[in-house]
Amino acid sequence: MFVAATAATPWLALFLLIGYGILACLGDSITTMIGLGANKGFIETNPIARWLFAKVGQSFAAFLSTAVYIFTALGIGTANWKAGMLYAGIVAAGETYFTIHNYLLLKKLGIKL
Fold first, then answer.
1. Fewer CB within 10 Å, N- or C-terminus of the chain?
2. Structural domain boundaries, residue 26
3. What is the rounded CA–CA span in Å between residue 107 and residue 71?
């Protein structure tokens, strides 16, 4: 019983970290969409995201970026779970930073969520 729980622990941790990363990606996407929709000086600084917004729209670009995050994290995690945890954690931390940054900028500009 203990051996099975120990073997599953890294995968559970990776799954939970990817789940948190998905929430962080959604937070960044939603706050970006609200800011851009308000049209009060809020700009997308990522040139790749700007290009994707113009080509496929904001919602589908958010879906694509989140899907790429999920599949790359799972792919890296399948080869080496420590590297997958590192990748998933770095992306989740970055998306958390941008969610908070966007929220504070929205608040500063007087844009309500």
1. N
2. 2-109
3. 33
Q: Are 87 and 16 in contact (CB under 8 A)?
A: no
Long-range contacts of 99-107 (CB under 8 A, 24+ apart): 99/24, 99/27, 99/28, 99/31, 102/28, 102/31, 102/32, 102/35, 103/31, 105/35, 105/42, 106/31, 106/34, 106/35, 106/38, 106/42
Work out how many domains the chain is built from and give that number. Answer: 1
Which of 14-28, 30-44, 67-81 is least confident?
30-44
d(CA 102, CA 32): 7
99 CB neighbour count, 10 Å cutoff: 20
Residues 6+ apart with CB under 8 A from 33: 58, 59, 62
More confidently predicted of 9 and 50: 50
